[in-house]
Structures are given as structure tokens and as C-alpha cells.
Amino acid sequence: MLKTKMTLSSFCAVCLISLVAAMVSGCGGDKDAMKAALAKTGMASDQAACFAEKMIEEGMEAEPYNYMAALMNNGASEKDAVNRTRRKFTAEFKTPMDAARKTCVQ
Question: What distance separates the 2 farthest-apart alpha carbons in the chain?
Fold first, then answer.
């Protein structure tokens, strides 16, 4: 019986560690990819750096952030990437983006 409990608790420990690792890795977007993507669409590098950082600070989730960056890095315009991301993740993802734009982009 003791061996079963140790095996079960070892399994639970591994599951907990995996869950924590997944949560931590999903908490932030790839800022470097976003900076590169925004620069690729023609945004000035200082504005791109500010915008990429502020979107995360304002609360944009990692999945739509990274999806939008990937679209732009693959040749989509910023407008097209925003529209495609909105269709996939709903318009709510734009709230932190709009707040960041007001701060960083003139």
C-alpha cells in the first residue's frame, strides 16, 4: 500500500510541476517576435518596442499576442493581422492593444 501511495504522490508531483510550467510559459508573449513584426510592417523601432511591451503590460494574453506577431512576421499587414486575430480570439483582445497604441504610437 505504501508503494502505491508513493507512486501516486510522485505522479501528482509531476502533474503539478507540469501544470505550473505550462502556466508560466503561457503568461507572456514573445516580445522580440512582436517587435520584429511591427518593424516589418513599417513601424519605427522605438514605437515598436514600446507598443510590444505595453500590450503585455496592459493585459493582452500571450496566445493572441503571439498569433498576431506570427501573422505579421509571415507578411500580413498590421491591419490584416489585427482583423484575423480578432476573428479568431474575439474583439476583446483589442482592449489592451488600443490602450498601448494610445501610449506608444503617434
Answer: 67
